[in-house]
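Hi all, long-time lurker, first post. I run a small reading group and we've been trying to get comfortable going from sequence to structure in the token notation. Rather than ask abstract questions, I figured I'd post a concrete chain and ask someone more experienced to write out its structure so we can walk through it together at our next meeting. Sequence below, copied exactly:
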Amino acid sequence: MFYLKEMAIHIDFEGKTVIIAGVGDGLGRALVRYIPEHNGRVIALSNDPEVLASIDADNDTIQKHDVDLADEALTKVVFKRIGETNSDIRGLVNTAYVPHYVTNTLGISKADVMRVFEHNFYAALHASQLAISLMLRNNPTTVVPDTFGGVTGVRGNIVTIGSILAGYGDRGKPVYAASKAAVASLAHSLAVDWGRAGIVSVLIEPGNIITPSNPLQGEVDDSGYTLARRRAFDESTTLGRSGSLEEIVPLVAEYLDPSRAYASGTTVRFDAGHRDAVFRWRGFEHGLVEEGRYDHADLPHRLDLDLKKK
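-- Answer (accepted) --
Happy to help. Here is the structure in token form:
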């Protein structure tokens, strides 16, 4: 008879170093705090000097590197240094991104596309390439072939942070949404290419997560959201609210654990059951039209669900 020994995962990064590629004031910064608290070491990569200065310089479990991950040459130099001083790279979290907002798709320029894709897609690709090389070099004997040609054992875990917008886009963010769709494909491709070498790749697509730069309240915040739009999003979830860093950080940590290897190649949606159609329609109910940001002519033709009748 088969018995499950233990169902609950115990998150412990003892003997492991995780690279956080793209530390800002949100998820990446929270992971830099969380992983050392759970016995691990972390390497924080950021192009924001203020963020790096805010990280505890006296904590010997944290390394900091000032690098723009869209800069190919500099990123290679930084990863070379990482490889020279760390022999236990077991995880990578791709969190780097830049936002992008336009009135509509007619306002998109080639420069917009190149900038967003460099930071949102290419940064994740290049960081993954360099991290995989370190994982394969430093953990050569972890993977064990089985009788049927598969493998057990993990050399490294990659968690890439996408967005629920990858699946359907959003007003004002077509380039951002397209870049996140590319990131989703990348995460799945990494799983296919490197799974049998012991590299696990998981994509997490969050909904709206409250962070210091993405606050819960305020008439207009730095991301361009209005409070009415925020409420519209919240009401389109099953819980009627946005998510928090306290909720998503343990989830990311869980998928950095080798015991979650069979999740490789999958997408984890973390959005409380958010539904696009509900979001768009209730956005109009909450006054986006009256605010002058959009007009009724922008209503997607595919939206055939009249929630006002319910």
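A couple of things your group might point at:
The two ends are 51 Å apart (CA to CA).
DSSP finds eight helices and eleven strands in the chain.
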